[in-house]
Structure to design on (358 residues):
């Protein structure tokens, strides 16, 4: 009772006519062609738009006008810009709006508008990183007994004095069976409890040496930072951020609420990437020591660098294991095999030659 057409199986009583099938295929083909055309247009338009004078808003208006003309020419008006898939559209817009709040209102002469391409590109990098399971921040949840709690915990009876908390189904049993189950403590009891949420401890170590101020390296660093800041805003984690070059720069900054998360993105966006040299091993060790006392669960440290600095991988791996830290490594537009090896050995995400797709 199946209709098979072009390798696809349709359950009866659905009837797939040749006309309907052809119509669906034509519609799908047009949409794919339109998406490819718009993506190509955006890539071609970016350098031209950025070379124009005017505020980001003025450039955005030019982009939208040109896009409207291109969309009408290719597949009609009213089709969304294919930056995100339809299933992600609502969440993606919320994330872009959140990032806009983080980046807007800069005091260092770098204005930003909601429709500035940089905002969308940075948030797209941040969202792509969430596709890696080992990089997703997540708070732990556990329920503990609490006489004043508003939640309910069901568990096995630990002592006979808890029989008064037995579930109602126990009291519906025949008396002999109740006596038997009570003697064996095979009774489920209900206890008042409270749900406790433990935030994850995340560290972010960003290379601000002079070589980072080239290509898309700063934008990639902003994308990683936005991903980590989003975890704080969602209430999943606390974040500690510090910059480094030849050594650590300044003091580690604790980010534990939405306002601080927004400020750290502005700070990174306006940071002067002009440090001298890169000392990855020393920076990671000192940074981990500094944040080890910060309260948080399942600690991780993420490093963003373009340095090919020597890393004593066996020693660094042993150090991180002793401290019970996971390392994530993003080597932007360059390669550092030893650093990425350490990250993989600790269970973290390692991306060598990390670059913006497309």
């Amino acid at each position: 009772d199946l209709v098979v057409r072009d390798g696809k199986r349709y359950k009866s009583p659905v009837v797939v006519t040749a006309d309907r099938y052809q119509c669906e295929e034509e519609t799908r083909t047009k949409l794919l062609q339109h998406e490819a055309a718009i993506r190509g247009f955006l890539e071609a338009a970016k350098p031209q738009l950025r070379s124009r004078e005017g505020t980001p808003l003025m450039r955005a208006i030019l982009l939208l006008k040109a896009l409207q003309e291109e969309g009408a020419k290719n597949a009609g008006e009213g089709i969304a810009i294919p930056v995100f898939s339809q299933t992600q559209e609502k969440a993606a817009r919320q994330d872009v709006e959140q990032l806009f709040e983080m980046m807007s209102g800069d005091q260092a002469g770098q204005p930003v508008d909601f429709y500035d391409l940089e905002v969308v590109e940075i948030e797209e990098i941040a969202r792509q990183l969430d596709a890696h399971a080992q990089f997703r921040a997540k708070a732990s949840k556990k329920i503990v007994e609490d006489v004043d709690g508003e939640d309910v915990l069901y568990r096995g009876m630990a002592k006979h004095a808890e029989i008064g908390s037995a579930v109602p189904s126990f009291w519906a049993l025949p008396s002999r069976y109740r006596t038997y189950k009570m003697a064996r403590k095979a009774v489920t009891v209900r206890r008042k409890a409270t749900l406790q949420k433990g935030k994850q401890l995340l560290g972010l170590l960003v290379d601000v040496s002079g070589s980072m101020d080239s290509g898309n390296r700063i934008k990639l660093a902003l994308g990683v930072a936005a991903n980590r800041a989003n975890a704080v805003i969602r209430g999943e984690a606390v974040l500690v951020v510090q910059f480094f070059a030849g050594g650590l720069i300044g003091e580690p900054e604790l980010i534990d609420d939405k306002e601080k998360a927004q400020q750290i993105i502005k700070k990174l966006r306006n940071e002067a990437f002009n440090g001298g040299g890169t000392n990855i091993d020393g920076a990671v060790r000192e940074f981990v020591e500094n944040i080890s006392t910060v309260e948080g669960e399942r600690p991780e440290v993420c490093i963003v660098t373009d340095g090919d600095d020597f890393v004593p991988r066996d020693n660094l791996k042993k150090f991180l294991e002793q401290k019970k830290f996971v390392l994530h490594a993003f080597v932007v537009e360059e390669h550092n095999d030893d650093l990425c090896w350490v990250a993989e050995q600790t269970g973290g995400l390692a991306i060598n030659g990390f670059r913006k797709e497309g």
Q: What stands out?
A: The chain has eleven helices and eleven strands.
